[in-house]
Write a structure and sequence with these properties.
Oligomer: single chain
Structural class: mainly beta
Largest sheet: 5 strands, mixed, barrel
Strand order of the largest sheet: 1-3-4-6-5
Distance between the termini: 61 Å
Shape: elongated
């Protein structure tokens, strides 16, 4: 099994996940360093990363979100199984840039107990769902939400 110490800069692809025995795993999307000399259709590289360092695991699970730009430093381990990708065992992590938080301008999601509603400034109608995402119905206006929820609870 080949190993190499390296640093990789990339964007977090999805929310980091808790792995076995107190580890955390995440994927970094890495783009070529010099885009001027790379074909426009060249795919990004996805580097699978894992760490067992408690400080890094805590940061990954509590402070990192998709879209954050990270520098992950560690040992790149080539899999012994043919065709399986290498993985980076991270021993140092640096946040280079954070993802922008989405800003809801014309739309607001609100919660009414076990129900969620979506207010849209451009419409009078209000979609209503259960907190688990099950469709309840469309209230004609914000004043009709309580009636729709009451009908759903009686059914």
């Amino acid at each position: 099994m080949d190993t190499k110490h390296c640093a990789v800069d990339g964007w977090v692809d999805a929310i980091p996940a808790l792995g076995p025995r107190g580890t955390a795993t995440f994927d970094l999307v890495v783009r070529p360093a010099d885009l001027d000399f790379v074909d426009e259709d060249a795919p990004d590289t996805v580097v699978t990363c894992t760490s067992g360092d408690p400080r890094i695991v805590h940061e990954l699970l509590n402070g990192i979100q998709p879209g954050d730009l990270l520098r992950a430093t560690g040992i790149l381990v080539q899999s012994s199984a043919p065709g399986e990708p290498a993985r980076l065992v991270v021993d140092a992590l640096e946040v280079l840039d954070t993802a922008r938080l989405p800003v809801l301008r014309d739309m607001v999601i609100d919660r009414y107990g076990d129900y969620c509603v979506i207010f849209d400034a451009n419409r009078d109608q209000v979609p209503v769902f259960t907190a688990f995402g099950q469709w309840v119905g469309m209230a004609d206006n914000p004043d009709a939400i309580a009636t729709l929820i009451d009908i759903h609870e009686r059914a």
